[in-house]
UniProtKB/TrEMBL annotation, chain A:
Protein name: ATP synthase subunit epsilon, mitochondrial
Described function: Mitochondrial membrane ATP synthase (F(1)F(0) ATP synthase or Complex V) produces ATP from ADP in the presence of a proton gradient across the membrane which is generated by electron transport complexes of the respiratory chain. F-type ATPases consist of two structural domains, F(1) - containing the extramembraneous catalytic core, and F(0) - containing the membrane proton channel, linked together by a central stalk and a peripheral stalk. During catalysis, ATP synthesis in the catalytic domain of F(1) is coupled via a rotary mechanism of the central stalk subunits to proton translocation.
GO CC term (a single one): mitochondrial inner membrane
Domain of life: Eukaryota
Principal localisation: mitochondrion
Organism of provenance: Carya illinoinensis (Pecan)
PANTHER family documented for this protein: ATP SYNTHASE EPSILON CHAIN, MITOCHONDRIAL, ATP SYNTHASE SUBUNIT EPSILON, MITOCHONDRIAL
UniProtKB/TrEMBL annotation, chain B:
Top-rank taxon: Eukaryota
Record InterPro entries: ATP_synth_F1_gsu (IPR000131), ATP_synth_F1_gsu_CS (IPR023632)
UniProt keyword terms in alphabetical order: ATP synthesis, CF(1), Hydrogen ion transport, Ion transport, Membrane, Mitochondrion, Mitochondrion inner membrane, Transit peptide, Transport
Protein name: ATP synthase subunit gamma, mitochondrial
Residues in the signal sequence: none
Keyword Mitochondrion annotated: yes
Length: 70, 322
């Protein structure tokens, strides 16, 4: 069923398996009908702030979030 | 005589201001005590103010305990359900905490908010011990820190070894998508042979066990597979979804990390709420004890001042007569 490529298309596009399965899950959640759809989509909200450290100093944190900052 | 008793009472109040209770009121009672003999003892106003503030603190900590209890109930169910996510992985790939690899990355999970007892300190202590354990010639260990509290503690002596620090994780209720995006970030930014996740596993409302979960990178899994054991039997399984074994291992490894991290974050959140519950509970109990002692002091002071007044009046009256 899968093509006989050396790597699946998503791997060669730079995605990890985690990203791939998240996108698939999102597709499945979007197939639901209301009101279950909005319930399921609230389970997908992402918000955290990550900062990379170099030489013992944190850089400016980048916020990865679905909700817009106000 | 009453003065001496009150002074003794004041000295007994000092040990109650232990780190457990969160009273920040200065011991003004005790400093007032050093008044020379003959003066009226501590005014009742000060004691009354202190009693009012301690009562407020007791109410606040009791409310915090209730809030923590309700949050705990909600999240405990999810944590126990999420245990089923990584159990198949352990059944398939085994758990190898004693694996010896070159690059270790320690993921320390802690809370952002305080007032939750000692769980963050134990996590940091275990992480530091793990670092010492896995140190050696041409081995390196790095930290990835989740949560403000562990960051503050690890900054003090391991600043150079921190790779990433993540905060504000609990702004929205925890869900798998968020943790998996986080896991993805970690995987993309950090090179590792073995990831060790340090968190507090939730046993019950009063007991939290610090645990280390180990996730190996696909290459490390290959190496371990050669030495036999659970991993060696991986070849006897027929696996769909990938052409080569290394590809399958890579997918599995990433997914395993994501699931284990999800469970770890949930368990740590549970432990945080449980620890906060017990910390707030002991705090309100301490505040109650303090309130009792203050009430005794207050009554004693009040009675002493009334007695002194009576004595003055009576001696004054008898002086007039005589």
């Amino acid at each position: 069923m899968a093509s006989n490529a050396a790597a699946p298309f998503w791997r060669s596009a730079g995605m990890t398996y985690i990203t791939y399965s998240n996108i698939c899950a999102n597709l499945v959640r979007n197939c639901l009908k209301e009101p279950y759809k909005t319930e399921a989509l609230t389970r997908e909200k992402v918000h955290f702030s990550v900062s990379k450290w170099t030489e013992g100093k944190p850089e400016k944190p980048t916020i990865r979030s679905d909700t817009p900052e106000d | 005589m009453a003065m001496a008793a009150v002074r003794r009472e004041g000295r007994r109040l000092a040990p109650l201001i232990s780190p457990q209770s969160i009273t920040a009121v200065r011991p003004s009672v005790i400093s007032q005590e050093q008044a020379p003999l003959g003066l009226r003892s501590i005014s009742t106003q000060i004691v009354r103010n202190r009693m009012k503030s301690v009562k407020n603190i007791q109410k606040i900590t009791k409310a915090m305990k209730m809030v923590a209890a309700s949050k705990l109930r909600a999240i405990q169910v999810r944590a126990e359900n999420s245990r089923g996510l990584w159990q198949p992985f352990t059944a398939l790939l085994g758990d190898t905490p004693s694996v010896d690899v070159k690059k270790n990355v320690i993921v320390t999970i802690s809370s952002d908010k305080g007032l939750c007892g000692g769980i963050n300190s134990t996590s940091v202590k275990i992480s530091k011990a793990l670092k010492k354990l896995t140190a050696g010639p041409d081995k390196e260990t790095k930290y990835v820190v989740l949560g403000e509290k562990a960051k503050a503690q690890l900054i003090r002596d391991s600043k150079k070894d921190i790779e990433l620090s993540i905060t504000e994780l609990q702004k929205n209720p925890l869900n798998y998508t968020q943790v998996s995006v986080l896991a993805d970030d970690i995987l993309k930014n950090v090179e590792y042979d073995a990831l060790r996740i340090v968190f507090n596993k939730f046993q019950s409302v009063v007991s939290f066990l610090p645990t280390v979960a180990t996730v190996l990178s696909p290459e490390a899994v290959e190496k371990e597979a050669e030495s036999g054991g659970k991993l060696g039997e991986l070849d006897s399984y027929e696996i769909e979804g990938g052409e080569t074994k290394s590809e399958v291992l890579q997918n599995l490894g990433e997914f395993q990390f994501s699931c284990v991290l999800f469970n770890a974050v949930l368990e740590n959140a549970c432990s945080e709420q449980g620890a906060r519950m017990s910390a707030m509970d002991s705090s309100s109990r301490n505040a109650g004890d303090m309130l009792d002692r203050l009430t005794l002091t207050y009554n004693r002071t009040r009675q002493a001042s009334i007695t002194t007044e009576l004595i003055e009046i009576i001696s004054g009256a008898s002086a007039l007569e005589g």
